[in-house]
């Protein structure tokens, strides 16, 4: 049986928990409609509580966004491991405390009329709030925090907070109901105390609560933002303000550094970790240096305005789930458009996410270009320059393998990476397009008893390899292409006794009786109508085709699940499930794990398809069952 006050009373509401703000919103709207707006701002405690709650959420979100901007914070990180899905799920309801304290504040304002009709500012109130914080809240928190590290309270309550291996701003809110009730009292003492003395004010309440949250997020940010030079110039400040490094030691060693914000109380209580200042200086000095070079880089690109929001530094929870279009994403479009224009003008490839696999560091970089830009003739040279710069930077850093995503390896853009390998023959980094494993995934999805398939995009790199492989299996391949020359060139590559299995078709009508469609070129719902009922659409086209036919099934883009021992993975790759990556990404991982020294660019070697597939399975990558009924 769980200890009392560990669970939240509104857990059963799920996302509907925000309806608890309904009465406050209703009363605030009524006041706005029927009263003077300025008077409402000063006198409506409902409106002010709602604004404070919204701002508190914003403070935590902005801190989360900053800490996940790895292109800015990578060299300032204290603990180097990544935040995985398990931690994200555990901290999912981090904002419960905002609801709790909003309800407590509402009750207090209703029961204690002197909390209403406060002036905007009171200097004495500011001073008294500061004195009460230092004299009451800080020592009370320190004492209570140490109690929560006792056997009973830690096992039943505080262990939840410490179960997050990497401190994050949202970790600050990830504690039990009892702990947040205690913290509510600690926050409330200075605010209530100064108001009881007759010197409370609206600005002081706003300022104190938001600064309190700001400093809590600072301590849990896992990014050192305070320079050691500040403490060298004014040594006494190190006892008045903690740092992210200081609090991270509490999370790693747990028996020291208990203070709220002021290490002075750890010094008095003799619980100050002796490594605090030295570690802070070391991390501060290392900030701005290159740090550890990745072993593998997956060079991705932005797909569209909506999926551009599917990154940890925008919304961590959103990026931890497979991308689907959500209504709220539309509200981010102005920011996405602004970011797109800024990246087009100034940005270069930047770090998005990372994970660790068997002691190797894997990173995902993004070329600052959106999908539609790859189809603008005047933008192609600039895109190739971005990709080339990323490859050269990876080479200089000592990266072993760099894998190109989807449009970054487009045949018409750079010949599947051939352009860069030919231009820079001395590259140490291996450039991989990953199409060999992509082909292997698609081919292994096709049932062994299939006798005929319809193939669009038939003369592309992937289409050619799939056609040649299938004809060797004695499968009849209807290759959709208007170019007899390109078809005949591919047909001649097949063994003489298999060439007749390759058949050129020029219209979709030719596949009206074929139930295995392999889509390598985007097809419209109208073109899908030619597939017979019960057909399955395999696909290697970006973006994926619409799931239009209810009487057919659709495959996702070719993908594989990473090995079970992957560490620190906490974001989904576009529409892939958790732990699943595109086959071109997985192909680069296999290249690294196998230690292959060749580049995988240009045309696919059909003979290597089975080799790469077996290597992927050997290293623990797993095929994904991608069949879906629409």
From TrEMBL:
It holds the Pfam family FA_hydroxylase. Keywords: Membrane, Transmembrane, Transmembrane helix. It is found in: Membrane. Residues 131-271 form the Fatty acid hydroxylase domain. Its main location: membrane. Residues 453-623 form the Very-long-chain aldehyde decarbonylase CER1-like C-terminal domain. This is Protein ECERIFERUM 3.
């Amino acid at each position: 049986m769980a200890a009392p006050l560990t669970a939240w009373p509104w857990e059963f509401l799920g996302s509907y928990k925000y309806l608890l703000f309904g009465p406050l919103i209703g009363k605030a709207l009524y006041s706005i409609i029927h009263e003077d707006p300025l008077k409402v701002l000063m006198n409506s405690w409902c409106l002010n509580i709602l604004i404070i709650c919204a701002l508190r959420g914003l403070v935590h979100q902005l801190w989360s966004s900053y800490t996940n901007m790895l292109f800015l914070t990578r060299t300032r990180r204290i603990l180097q491991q990544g935040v995985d899905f398990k931690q994200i799920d555990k901290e999912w309801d981090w904002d419960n405390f905002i609801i709790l304290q909003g309800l407590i504040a509402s009750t207090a304002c209703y029961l204690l009329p002197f909390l209403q009709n406060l002036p905007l500012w009171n200097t004495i109130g500011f001073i008294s709030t500061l004195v009460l914080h230092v004299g009451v809240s800080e020592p009370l928190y320190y004492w209570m925090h140490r109690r929560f590290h006792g056997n009973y309270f830690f096992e039943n309550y505080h262990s939840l907070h410490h179960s997050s291996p990497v401190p994050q701003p949202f970790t600050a809110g990830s504690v039990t109901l009892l702990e947040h009730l205690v913290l509510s009292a600690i926050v409330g003492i200075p605010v209530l105390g100064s108001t009881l003395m007759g010197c409370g004010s609206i600005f002081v309440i706003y300022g104190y609560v938001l600064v309190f949250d700001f400093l809590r997020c600072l301590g849990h940010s896992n990014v050192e933002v305070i320079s050691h030079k500040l403490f060298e110039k004014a040594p006494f400040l190190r006892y008045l303000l903690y740092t992210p490094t200081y609090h991270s030691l509490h999370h790693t060693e747990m028996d020291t550094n208990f203070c709220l914000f002021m290490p002075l109380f750890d010094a008095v209580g003799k619980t100050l970790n002796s490594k605090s200042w030295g570690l802070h200086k070391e991390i501060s000095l290392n900030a701005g240096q290159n740090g550890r070079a990745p072993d593998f880089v997956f060079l991705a690109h932005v797909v569209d305005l909506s999926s551009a929001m599917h990154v940890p530094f925008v919304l961590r929870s959103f990026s931890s789930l497979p991308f689907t279009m959500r209504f709220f994403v539309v509200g981010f479009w102005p920011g996405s458009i602004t970011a797109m224009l800024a990246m087009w003008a100034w940005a270069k490839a930047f770090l998005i996410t990372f994970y660790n696999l068997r002691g190797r560091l894997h990173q995902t970089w993004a070329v600052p270009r959106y999908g539609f830009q790859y189809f603008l003739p005047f933008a192609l040279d600039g895109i190739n320059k971005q990709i080339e710069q990323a490859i050269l930077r990876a080479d200089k850093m000592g990266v072993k393998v760099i894998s190109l995503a989807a449009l970054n390896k487009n045949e018409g853009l750079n010949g599947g990476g051939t352009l860069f390998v030919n231009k820079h023959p001395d590259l140490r980094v291996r450039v991989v397009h990953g199409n060999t494993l992509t082909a292997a995934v698609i081919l292994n999805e096709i049932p062994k008893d299939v006798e005929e398939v319809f193939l669009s995009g038939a003369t592309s790199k992937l289409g050619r390899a799939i056609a040649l492989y299938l004809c060797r299996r004695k499968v009849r391949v209807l290759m959709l292409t208007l170019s007899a020359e390109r078809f005949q060139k591919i047909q001649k590559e097949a063994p003489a006794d298999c060439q007749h299995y390759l058949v050129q078709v020029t219209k979709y009508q030719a596949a009206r009786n074929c139930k295995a469609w392999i889509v390598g070129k985007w097809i419209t719902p109208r073109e899908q109508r030619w597939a017979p009922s019960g057909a399955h659409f395999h696909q290697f086209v970006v973006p994926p085709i619409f799931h239009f036919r209810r009487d057919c099934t659709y495959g996702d883009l070719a993908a594989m699940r990473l090995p079970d021992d992957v560490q620190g993975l906490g974001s989904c790759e576009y529409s892939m499930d958790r732990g699943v990556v595109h086959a071109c990404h997985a192909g680069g991982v296999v290249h690294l794990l196998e230690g292959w020294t060749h580049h995988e660019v240009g045309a696919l070697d059909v003979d290597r398809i089975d080799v790469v597939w077996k290597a992927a399975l050997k290293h623990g990558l797993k095929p994904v069952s991608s069949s879906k009924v629409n």
